[in-house]
Amino acid sequence: xxxxxxxxxxxxxxxxxxxxxxxxxxxxxxxxxxxxxxxxxxxxxxxxxxxxxxxxxxxxxxxxxxxxxxxxxxxxxxxxxxxxxxxxxxxxxxxxxxxxxxxxxxxxxxxxxxxxxxxxxxxxxxxxxxxxxxxxxxxxxxxxxxxxxxxxxxxxxxxxxxxxxxxxxxxxxxxxxxxxxxxxxxxxxxxxxxxxxxxxxxxxxxxxxxxxxxxxxxxxxxxxxxxxxxxxxxxxxxxxxxxxxxxxxxxxxxxxxxxxxxxxxxxxxxxxxxxxxxxxxxxxxxxxxxxxxxxxxxxxxxxxxxxxxxxxxxxxxxxxxxxxxxxxxxxxxxxxxxxxxxxxxxxxxxxxxxxxxxxxxxxxxxxxxxxxxxxxxxxxxxxxxxxxxxxxxxxxxxxxxxxxxxxxxxxxxxxxxxxxxxxxxxxxxxxxxxxxxxxxxxxxxxxxxxxxxxxxxxxxxxxxxxxxxxxxxxxxxxxxxxxxxxxxxxxxxxxxxxxxxxxxxxxxxxxxxxxxxxxxxxxxxxxxxxxxxxxxxxxxxxxxxxxxxxx
Length: 551
Hints:
Blueprint: E1 4-5, H1 14-23, H2 40-60, H3 67-79, E2 87-89, H4 94-101, E3 104-107, E4 110-115, E5 118-124, H5 129-133, E6 140-144, E7 147-148, H6 156-163, E8 170-176, E9 184-189, E10 191-194, E11 198-203, E12 208-213, H7 220-233, E13 238-242, H8 251-259, E14 267-273, E15 280-283, E16 294-299, H9 306-316, E17 321-324, E18 332-338, E19 344-353, H10 368-372, H11 374-381, E20 397-399, E21 405-407, E22 416-417, H12 427-434, H13 437-448, H14 450-454, H15 458-464, H16 469-481, H17 488-511, H18 513-520, H19 525-532, H20 534-550
Parallel strand pairs: 1-4, 12-13, 13-16, 16-17, 17-22
Antiparallel strand pairs: 2-19, 3-10, 4-5, 5-6, 6-7, 6-8, 8-9, 11-12, 14-15, 14-19, 18-19, 20-21
């Protein structure tokens, strides 16, 4: 996704989840489409009508108009009458749209964030061009190719456009570095940079592994398989697979991951479209790396599309215990169709169903606006806090392989519900994160204490490093300077969470993702609940094994 940008864990991400979910869940490839024999005459009449109107506007309308923009708008408006996930992507937006699902990109390889309208390097990616020339964590990028980019309201998209480019082309960066009086110039040749969809994999304890998957892109399965093999070599016998906030992507990557867990020839997913052209059934077919170990899957309202295929297959086959909150509810499959001008139509061609027969797609008959507000309405109804607030229809009742009752009609309902933890969330903390102040504070601390931090290994850091009250007072002073009013009651309520995240961000700068995630998980109630449920997963696993023996 261009150069990597990291945002605070506490920022409200539901609009982000929704936007990605609308674009995800697609089949690989495209094909030429012909009008159906049933609607050929109507299609021809509609085409001629649209052509005539566009011609009249272009020739006779009183003001000058951009015909291309007008036609793009007309197409997008027309598609809104179909379903929430059929979309049209103009040619100018295709690079960004593709980058989400592609396995790599061409750029300089740097993780950055925007603090106080200035680009800060979080970390140069290992082995990338930025690391090779000596760019460091904490550097402030103030110019790109001689153009000032600090203090001008630059956006993440703007940065992507400036730093990305064809392999071999060069970009000139001017940076400010702490303890250096003058700016430093770097000339960096762009190169192919692999993107990462498996955020982290590590051993929680001697037996339990953890893998976080943030999307289903071109390289996701290979990354996941490598992580699974690595953890097995380290002694993993049970696994927590984290799909929270994962908005989906390529369907086949999800089914291949499911096949690593499901034995025999059990059904994983099936699709049903118009006629039989896009009907399909997918079964387990290979000997997977983790068909016997205990498995817990974490989902939430941001888990959509391919995430729901995977979670639904594992739940329906009684292969995993699903923990968290009801998933997004996207059960429509899109095919990307390239158009002549470089734009793309992503057309819904089928619905997908879990092995028990559930369609996970939530209703959308009330229109696009109602559909887009569904996530916030769940919050208002109390669904994030009370499972009884979720309404299920008896006619959409299904059974898993072992006879457990599950429901269709909108998302995957977890086996174990975990309420959203808001006990430590306050307006004061939200303001700190809105200004990206917590992450900036941690980065500056790392730069000031890099030598002593690097002398510790992660185990030593985790056991001995503490965020002191003096550090918190410094943060409060910085917040006050940014006109964030200190509120002692709110600060005290958020204090433990704030200390946890400062420590995790410092660990991220020092040790990478393998350092930050274990510390974040100390304050992650959903993750902690997943660990507690491993015993229940073990019981379920044994029941399934006995059932398999009887078949």
